[in-house]
Amino acid sequence: MIEIENIKKSFDGKAVLHGISGTFEKGKTNLIIGASGTGKSVLLKCIVGLVKPDEGTVTYDGRDFTHGDKSLRTDIRREIGMLFQGGALFDSMNVEANVMFPLNVLTKMPQAEKLDRVNFCLERVGLAGVNKKMPSEVSGGMKKRVGIARAIVNNSKYLFCDEPNSGLDPQTSITIDNLIQEITYEFDITTVVVTHDMNSVMEIGDYILFMHQGYKKWEGSTATIAQADVPELKDFIFANKLMRTMIKK
Ligand SMILES: Nc1ncnc2c1ncn2[C@@H]1O[C@H](COP(=O)(O)OP(=O)(O)OP(=O)(O)O)[C@@H](O)[C@H]1O
Fold first, then answer.
1. 27: phi > 0 → left, psi -120 to 50 → alpha, else beta; which?
2. Which amino acid residue places its CA nearest to atom 6 of ligand 1?
3. Ligand 1 centroid vs 43 CA: distance in angstroms?
4. Which terminus in the chain has less CB density within 10 A, N or C?
5. Does the model's ipTM exceed the 0.90 cut?
6. In sequence order, which ranges of the chain are alpha helices (DSSP H)?
7. Predicted local confidence at residue 240, as pLDDT
8. In terms of DSSP H, where are the helices of 18-110?
């Protein structure tokens, strides 16, 4: 479980996060949603330690990541897997080397064990046997799968996905969303997904934190989002024509 409490961040005197709190539970797909420029990526960066919040605390399973010492922060970082926008694969490395990369950097595992682990993860994301392909030789959806395999290869306890559907067609997006959710349940990971894709919200949102202009305006689940009485959330949901027809405003 990851808990964030009163996270505040300003850049050059301009407040971007106005005190965000929330709880991301283990074994659930937790979504941070909201319109463009509303602070989702900055919040994600605060949670994983790429940006230091001005105020507030991020706690990983009771461990204070924000104020912890270097060794605690390093321990927690080792337990984090990240799926970046576009996959962010190393173009000069084949699929196998990309997925193995965290094991090379973070572990002293023997080569044969590393390869077993890589093959297990590639198989789990539906890419058995593509080890020797280069990133340029695989589709956008496959790149995301490779990114997911890399994010979980070191038995990550926490998985962060920044806009996992960017650049994908709707059908591939749903497949990737479902894969993220299946993996979350299967390996009991605390998963946090940043998205503005309403399809994702309705497909995989076990917990949803809605942001608007740096404020948390609502939290809940797919089961309760349609009944939410928050004007900014309604505007966000019903900007999508399909959602307007599915749920009456
Ligand atoms: N390093 C930075 N320095 C200054 N301003 C920043 C920095 N990073 C983000 N911002 C500002 O913070 C605000 C929130 O940005 P953020 O990228 O978190 O939005 P977002 O909700 O993730 O948007 P999108 O969905 O388009 O990615 C924006 O106004 C952005 O310009």
1. left
2. 11
3. 9
4. C
5. yes
6. 40-48, 70-78, 95-106, 111-124, 140-152, 170-186, 198-204, 222-225, 231-238, 241-246
7. 62
8. 40-48, 70-78, 95-106
